[in-house]
């Protein structure tokens, strides 16, 4: 997949320091990453960077969201996956300070 996007878009990737098989775009004009699917039906997920992942999870739950994957650490910070009230999955991330 890295080869595909590198050829198609000219993106460069760097493997996460503490997250094997999690490749972050570098010097690509976008902030993003690719990783291996957790299951065959997994779709692409859009991530939004937030100031506090814990606060965002709490607020999303109070608004009717479900937590698909709770807060997990990665080399650059933390991420979680939420399911909105219409069953759309969105990722949230928080950078390490």
Question: What's the short story on this structure?
Answer:
The protein is α+β, with helices and mostly antiparallel strands.
Instruction: Give the class from helix and strand content and strand pairing.
Output: alpha+beta
Q: Give the C-alpha Rg.
A: 14 Å
| Helix content class | 10-25%
Mean of residue pLDDT values: 87
Estimated share of beta-strand residues: 35-45%
Which sequence of SSEs, written as H and E, runs from N to C?
A: HEEEEHEEE
Instruction: State the separation between the terminal residues, measured CA to CA.
Output: 30 Å
Tally the beta strands: 7
Largest sheet: 4 strands, mixed
Q: Which parts are unreliable, with pLDDT below 50 for 5 consecutive residues or more? A: none
| Shape verdict | globular
Keywords:
single chain, 97 residues, alpha+beta, four-stranded mixed sheet, three-stranded antiparallel sheet, 2 helices, 39% strand
């Amino acid at each position: 997949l890295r080869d595909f996007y590198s050829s198609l878009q000219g993106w460069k990737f760097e493997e996460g320091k503490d997250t094997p098989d999690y490749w972050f775009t570098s010097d690509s004009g976008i902030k993003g990453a690719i990783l291996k699917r957790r299951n065959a039906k997994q779709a692409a997920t859009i991530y939004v960077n937030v100031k506090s992942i814990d606060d965002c999870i709490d607020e999303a739950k109070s608004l009717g969201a479900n937590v698909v994957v709770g807060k997990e650490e990665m080399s650059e910070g933390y991420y979680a996956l939420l399911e909105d009230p219409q069953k759309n999955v969105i990722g949230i991330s928080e950078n390490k300070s």
